[in-house]
Amino acid sequence: MNESQYVSAMLERTYRAFDRAEVERIRNMTWAVAGLGGVGAITVELLARWGVKCFRLLDMDRYEPSNLNRQLFATSKTLGRWKVDVAAERIREINPFAEIEMQIAERVNNDNVDPFVHGAGMLVQNADYPSAKLFYLAARRHRVPLVNGYATVTGGRVQVFDYRTSTCTTFLDEWWQRLKFGRRKPLTSYDPEELAGFDRENVHATAPSINFVTNLVGCLIVAEAVKLLTGKGRSVVYPYYLEFDVFQWRWRKRHVYSPWNPINWAALFKTLEKQYPSQRAAQNQKKA
């Protein structure tokens, strides 16, 4: 079976929902996927099943036992292996005609981010460490649309940054970054060791994770990307984002900086507490 026959058979049911021009638009662009964990693996799986022809993959981790509860490509056979290598194999198992243009098994840095992003048709940003901000800066420079998502314990958030038509930034974004991380030199001037240190200083504590939540976020990321590229449906494009909670069955479109958004206030107070510890906390620290 040649490539045309194979892909036509694979996408027979997809063609019943999308016309061939729409499917080919998705298939023919290069997809750069950063982060291949609980959220990222399912995005790769779904994109491979869209018949995407060209992938770029980036993840700095190997599989470990704690990944088995939620990460699609984590099995007893893949423990200890690089996630980018396992993802590349999975893509080729689904579509042997797909090309893996890049496999980067390291942290994003100022040397690899531009080659990874430049020329891509879509950047799927699933990396969950602070230096991942470099992906957004590169996508803005190269005008590559970006879809981001992350899981909370019982829900998550998904957002589209269409850098083809907008910088997707305001003075509030700059103010928030300065408040959150303090005054520092631009991330674009950090070397790899400095980026690793920046991540260690600012990374979130290990959180609980539920497999149906993380995988749902990945499904929604692909849905938003497909909607943006085909023009079907409505995408949650910056400054809006989708926020949901499967336990409360809450499903809302929110504004990034709306004063009526309780999530914004919670994030602000949490950041202020971190940057300016309360007097009581300071007193307790002195007593200790």
TrEMBL record:
<dbReference type="InterPro" id="IPR035985">
    <property type="entry name" value="Ubiquitin-activating_enz"/>
</dbReference>
<dbReference type="Pfam" id="PF00899">
    <property type="entry name" value="ThiF"/>
</dbReference>
<keyword id="KW-0812">Transmembrane</keyword>
<keyword id="KW-0472">Membrane</keyword>
<dbReference type="GO" id="GO:0061503">
    <property type="term" value="F:tRNA threonylcarbamoyladenosine dehydratase"/>
</dbReference>
<keyword id="KW-1133">Transmembrane helix</keyword>
<dbReference type="GO" id="GO:0061504">
    <property type="term" value="P:cyclic threonylcarbamoyladenosine biosynthetic process"/>
</dbReference>
<protein>
    <submittedName>
        <fullName>ThiF family adenylyltransferase</fullName>
    </submittedName>
</protein>
<dbReference type="InterPro" id="IPR045886">
    <property type="entry name" value="ThiF/MoeB/HesA"/>
</dbReference>
<feature type="transmembrane region" description="Helical">
    <location>
        <begin position="29"/>
        <end position="52"/>
    </location>
</feature>
<dbReference type="GO" id="GO:0008641">
    <property type="term" value="F:ubiquitin-like modifier activating enzyme activity"/>
</dbReference>
<keyword id="KW-0548">Nucleotidyltransferase</keyword>
<dbReference type="InterPro" id="IPR000594">
    <property type="entry name" value="ThiF_NAD_FAD-bd"/>
</dbReference>
<dbReference type="GO" id="GO:0016779">
    <property type="term" value="F:nucleotidyltransferase activity"/>
</dbReference>
<feature type="domain" description="THIF-type NAD/FAD binding fold">
    <location>
        <begin position="14"/>
        <end position="256"/>
    </location>
</feature>
<keyword id="KW-0808">Transferase</keyword>
